[in-house]
Amino acid sequence: MAKYIFITGGVVSSLGKGITSASIGRLLKSHGFKINMIKCDPYLNVDAGTMSPFQHGEVFVTQDGAETDLDLGHYERFVEINTTDDNNITAGKIYSSVIEKERKGLYLGQTVQVIPHLTDEIKNRFVKAGEGYDIVLIEIGGTVGDIESLPFLEAARQMKNNRNSSDTVYIHVTLVPYLSSSDELKTKPTQHSVTKLREIGIDPDIIVTRSEKPLTPDLKKKIALFSSVPPEAIIEAHNVSSIYEVPELLKKQGMDEQIMMLLRLRSNQYDMKEWERFVTKIKEAYKYRQVKIVMAGKYTKLKDSYKSLNEALLHACISNSANLHIEYLDTEEKKETIEETIKNSDGLIIPGGFGERGIEGKIFAIKTARENNIPFLGICLGMQCAAIEFARNVLKLKNANSLEFDPKTQNPVITIIENQKNADKGGTMRLGNYPCSIKKKSLAFNIYNKPVVTERHRHRFEFNNSYMDKFEKNGMIISGFNSKDKLVEIIEYSKHPFFIGVQFHPEFNSRPLFPHPLFVNFIKASMRGNQNEI
Ligand code: GLN
Fold first, then answer.
1. Overall average pLDDT of the 165-186 stretch
2. Ligand 1, residues 383, 455, 460, 504: which to mutate, most atoms within 8 A of Cβ?
3. Residue 421 has what pLDDT?
4. pTM value surpassing 0.90
5. What domains, with CATH codes, occur in the chain?
């Protein structure tokens, strides 16, 4: 039977609970345990599909096409697992499923209540998540004290009932703020949040403190005392320069040993060598050649909006011994600014996105990269914009556009396919894994070195196949194709050293130790410098 680790948060949100959970997962995996990771989101949305990246950061897409919280991305990258829809439990999912059961008459005669019906529904999912695993880490979103997260915390509490005390561990991640006026760290908020947790019936076994400055032994003792845990169960997670350092930071303080002791698990293996090598390279990256990548997206104000993409670029840079510098470009800027920024860069990325804002600037940015032999990688919307740019400026197709931006265009090079028409927003997207056949003797084949690849999707619009011949005759090759559904997956410009657009999101498949080949090769091309200057 699986053992459970619950991770709760105190005082404020955005404490890095996701990274902490993922790091613990990594440590335990390196001890040879089979790990599953769950994120509970107390909001009433069923999934993150319609949530704004401005508010919640990136929507992470799983292989089976679930639109989930970005913490699942951390889990996949740190623990090297492939998550599914089941790894993200939202209050929306729980309520809908309980209400659906009630309508079907499955609770006949009963009054349907938060406890036990919602909590049972949550617990059933926790139990299911444990099938086939040694340890399940369950991160509960939000902060202890929120009304919304109560059913999840109650379910977490109930999980220790009818189990041995060595089957569940509760970790509380909390903030220890620093007051500059008195130059001290304050433990009172932690004290309150531990009390709150206790009121719910959960006694924490380990406290992870987030603070700007290291805790003194006295402070540790104080927190240990009021939390009723031994001082060694107070683990400090002060700020580090890279998130990938966190597993080591926790390891140094014995986090893995503490957990194994509490769960009465033993391991005589531990392998973090490759990971440590990767972290050392990140720390030394400032010595490497800098690659300046321009990212022209819409949501550049919130860093987390392109989380997986930023990480994929970092993984690729580290594997190329390059020092990543991302320059965010607002494509609503003047043409001169766009042109100058791109000409002064090593490569251009247009990430995925929705809506019309900034599109003309993106198309102009792509034109600049194409005409100046600057490496270009277009992702989803980026690929669609590359098709529009090519149609307008090379094929001279007047007003070529996507139906998303101009529903009346005479040249819809990006269109909506028949069975996706008229459906409601949110229900019409091509989501998750789809296979793609790669054309031999293409840049795509050089990159992947495989005849068929599978990548994750999240989009509504597609390349319009009636333009395929015209594109290919003029050098824009369709090098990736989904033959079953007849959908274009990859386009590349043969008259350019590195110009490629993909309809999917390769960033979701990049891992620190297994960087994605598309990004690795994009960075490699970008490191060759501006091809015009050679
Ligand atoms: N807006 C485009 C579409 O729906 C692209 C989506 C994306 O980039 N993920 O097809």
1. 93
2. 460
3. 54
4. yes
5. 3-276 (3.40.50.300), 284-527 (3.40.50.880)
